[in-house]
Automatic annotation (TrEMBL), chains A, B:
GO molecular function: hydrolase activity; metal ion binding
InterPro entries: HAD-like_SerB (IPR050582), HAD-like_sf (IPR036412), HAD_sf (IPR023214)
Source organism per UniProt: Brevundimonas goettingensis
Cross-referenced Pfam families: HAD
Gene3D superfamilies in the cross-refs: HAD superfamily/HAD-like
Signal peptide (UniProt feature, chain positions): 1-29
Highest taxon of source: Bacteria
The protein, known as: Haloacid dehalogenase-like hydrolase
């Protein structure tokens, strides 16, 4: 097609008609990894309603969509990707610093012993995350994250982490953007960690990534100014997601997607007002192709939000039934 | 021109050539309110350098510009616009609430006596701002701000506040956007206050407005969910501007504009790294057309930042000399 597009303009008329036809049924072209069913139909009906003249129309500048990241856009099992990064980075730091290596949490990650690492307490993990996420410049942190992401592999699938994203959700973000939506990520993950891959992986610009983070301090270095990450962390989960997105976006979203109780308030806020609104919960029910977990899971627990979905009218997406393919490499 | 543009396509060729010529010299067309001089030349040279192939080229996604608001984009004398709003709103609240009206600060604004209002202490002002900025929903606050802005007039010029913006700065924002820049506002003002006019007045979307604000709380109301503004305020001045813009934008700006010592750190951060960067300070030196103030001013004090400008290579814009027109109504 591209070769013929460069021909004389009058030859383009048939293609223009074809393009118009495709534009008139964008879901057909835009959501190929979604199986036909209630979830896909609801998404298409929502986007059609808010983008078409009529009572549900929403002006383009007010079409704001927010997505959780871990478990909603990419795999969060068996550990959050950012925790995997923190463990790997902590081992590196311990290698270079005997005093650090003597501390129990660091000794565990340095040992590489999976059972010892799995037995780390929440306090241990916080010590490791504090060591890898604070006391360095924002640029150094981002560089370490990018370097790790470039070579790390998921322990079970063997995929690179940026390849562990959900193809149907990539298509959904594209479909929303094609409908004039501004797409934001609102995640419990560190925003600078996410920013190292969000543009390339999701097409989301750094300023549309909202997450947790460390308070920064500006310091003079080499005649210039840099930002260092202090040890004071700012959260972005549960109600904090709503606070942060309201402060940073300034418009109530009309679409929110999540997968766990940490997304409950964000979905309530996005859908808890008049007008046509959409709440989406990814339900991990596919042990064969991804993972199956919900109410009892230590990671990505989906319990209260699942109970809230019915009364609130949210769309619960079954990975097993609604997704034709899960990962991009299966779609190729 | 628009009428002729609707004619047959082949007639458009001459206009296309004209448009190309204009595009080749965008500053000529884009900055008409700027007098020829060092400031205008420096701006044009910077934008040309970072948008043209060569050693100073910056990819479009990294062209981030930040602007202070009060005194940089619009008049901040004799009082910040937001304080004028707060005083007017506090008087309204006191009218409806005798207990409030009995408090000295509220009694002063209720009296309408300019001398008494001018004599209010910082503590008094904080009490008034707390009353007008907290304890209500975000939507109610925004509605009150919009309502006030629609009818309020500047006490000396008689202009509506959205007409008290600087025409040359509007042109500068447009010029940067035409060069692929993302334009953000980073101001000590309340972000939800600014968001009520930023899009219409500056062409800046709500999520590109960074400012101070109150911590919010999500509460259930009428079967839906709303956000209320608590009395805990978050600042956005001086070093906080850098912290906030780093958290929210995620990319170090390559252009920063301000007018006071509250913008010092933001300019240092934007220009304090390698690569072609631009710092701009608006110097209020035009008592005839606007105001003249700098080192001794209670509002918009420009002292340390003015001293820093020379060594840092920032462009100090003289309103008197560099701006052909100051306000939009003078440009018509």
């Amino acid at each position: 097609m591209p070769a013929r597009m460069s021909g004389p303009r009058r030859l383009l008329a048939p293609f223009a008609i074809l393009a118009a036809l495709l534009a008139a049924s964008p879901a057909w072209a835009a959501l190929p990894s979604w199986n036909a069913g209630a979830a896909k139909s609801a998404i298409v009906a929502f986007v059609t309603a808010v983008t078409s003249p009529g009572p549900a129309f929403v002006p383009e500048g007010e079409r704001v969509a927010v997505f959780d990241n871990d478990g909603t856009l990419w795999t969060e099992q068996p550990v959050y990707t950012e925790v995997a990064f923190s463990l790997a980075r902590a081992a590196e730091l311990a290698k270079a610093d005997p005093a650090l290596a003597a501390r129990p949490a660091f000794a565990a990650v340095l040992s590489g012993d999976r059972a010892r690492i799995a037995a780390l307490s929440a306090t241990d993990l916080m010590e490791l995350v504090a060591a890898t996420h604070s006391g360095l410049t924002v640029d150094a942190f981002s560089a370490a994250a990018a370097q790790w992401l470039a070579q790390a592999r998921h322990p079970q699938s063997g995929r690179a982490y940026p390849d562990s994203v959900y193809q149907p959700m990539l298509e959904l973000m594209d479909y929303l953007r094609a409908g004039g939506f501004q797409v934001f990520i609102v995640s419990g993950g560190d925003r600078d960690f996410m920013r190292t891959f969000a543009l390339e992986t999701y097409g989301v610009r750094p300023w549309q990534v909202i997450g947790s983070g460390n308070v920064t301090e500006m310091v003079e270095a080499d005649g210039g100014w840099v930002l260092t990450r202090t040890d004071k962390a700012l959260g972005d989960d549960g109600p904090d997601k709503v606070r942060n997105l309201a402060l940073q976006i300034g418009i109530r979203p009309i679409f929110a997607a999540g997968n766990s109780d940490g997304d409950l308030q964000m979905l309530q806020y996005a859908t808890g007002a008049t007008g046509t609104r959409f709440g989406l919960l990814v339900h991990h029910d596919d042990a064969a192709r991804e993972y199956a977990y919900d109410r009892q899971s230590a990671i990505g627990k989906l319990d209260k939000a699942l109970d809230a979905a019915g009364p609130a009218g949210w769309t619960v997406v079954s990975i097993r039934n609604d997704w034709r393919t899960v990962f991009p490499d299966e779609a190729r």
